[in-house]
TrEMBL record:
Cofactor: Zn(2+)
Keyword Zinc: yes
Pfam families reported for this sequence: Lactamase_B
UniProt domain Metallo-beta-lactamase: residue ranges: 39-250
Protein source organism: Rubrobacter xylanophilus (strain DSM 9941 / JCM 11954 / NBRC 16129 / PRD-1)
Matches recorded under SMART domains: Lactamase_B
Keyword annotations of the record: Hydrolase, Metal-binding, Zinc
Family assignment from sequence similarity: Belongs to the metallo-beta-lactamase superfamily.
Molecular function per GO: hydrolase activity; metal ion binding
InterPro entries, per database record: MBL_superfamily_lactonases, Metallo-B-lactamas, RibonucZ/Hydroxyglut_hydro
PANTHER family for this protein: 102 KBASES UNSTABLE REGION: FROM 1 TO 119443 (PTHR42978:SF2), QUORUM-QUENCHING LACTONASE YTNP-RELATED-RELATED (PTHR42978)
Entry protein name: Beta-lactamase-like protein
Length: 266
């Protein structure tokens, strides 16, 4: 056990909810509009305070809502989810159900991240989100910004609003990384054997963002470009300082490389 042991989480399963086609220019500033396939991912982390779910994927409701889906995904190819209900199927793949979680978090409220919120509210699981993300989603964003209100507008979702960085559970932190959207956050997970992991989520979709230090190509608020640049720099700096594994949010090849071993990453 390394020095981080005392406050570390116990283990982490990687979750795959599905995949989506996306113009590369959204992920990488200055890139072409060629369509790339992006995995839709998350993580389930066991901690001393119970299971913590990071990200909820793409939901069945959107997949079945052809009009909204096609206006968000303009390409001929369309997103898909695992199993009949991607949220339940992704959890089931690692032997978990919504009610097994003590708490959950969503990095931002784009449609490929909000798919499980209704399941979590039905199971009574509180969900951490940045306050600024929730207000942006409620007051300013819509289909044009890839926000799908039926997933997140509900009296029953048990929101826990954050304002910046926060420790969510022993060994699991939210890192405020705005830019891609106004209230975007990434995660830090400390594990006893493999050390520190940083999950960039959409602050860095691809390895290319990290290797070439190229920020995302698109921000939900056009004025947020400098914040996106700062967030990418912050993640790279933290990864260096913490000797962390930095996981991009939508990179197919990278994702295959970090598939968890049996029983999860420890
Ligand atoms: Zn996004």
């Amino acid at each position: 056990m390394n020095v981080r042991g005392a406050r570390a989480a116990r283990r982490m399963y990687m979750l795959t909810y599905g995949a989506e086609p996306s113009p590369k220019s959204i992920s990488v500033r200055g890139a072409s509009d060629e369509i790339i396939w992006c995995p839709i991912i998350g993580a389930a982390v066991e901690t001393a305070a119970g299971w913590v779910l990071l990200e909820t994927g793409i939901g069945r409701r959107l997949l079945e809502d052809e009009t909204s889906r096609r206006s968000i995904y303009a390409s001929r190819e369309q997103p898909w989810g695992v199993g009949e209900d991607p949220f339940l199927a992704a959890l089931q793949a690692v032997g978990l159900r919504p009610e097994d979680f003590s708490l959950a978090a969503v990095s931002h409220l784009h449609v490929d991240h909000t798919g499980g919120l209704q399941h979590l509210s039905a199971a009574g699981v509180p969900v951490f989100v940045q306050a600024g993300e929730l207000s942006f989603a409620r007051e300013r964003a819509g289909i044009a910004e890839a926000y799908y209100a039926p997933d997140y507008v509900s009296e029953r979702i048990l929101w826990r609003e954050l304002d910046g960085d926060a420790e969510l559970a022993p060994g699991v932190w939210a890192l405020f990384t705005p830019g891609h959207t106004p209230g975007h956050m990434s995660y830090r997970v400390d594990l006893p054997e493999s050390g520190t992991w940083l999950l960039a989520v959409d602050a860095a979709d691809l390895s290319e963002n990290l290797n070439d230090r190229v920020p995302p190509g698109w921000t939900a608020d056009a004025g947020d470009v400098p914040r996106a640049d700062n967030s990418l720099r912050r993640l790279l700096r933290e990864a260096e300082n913490l000797d962390a594994r930095l996981v991009p949010g939508h990179d197919g090849f990278f994702w295959k490389a970090v598939r968890h071993p049996r029983g999860g990453h420890r």
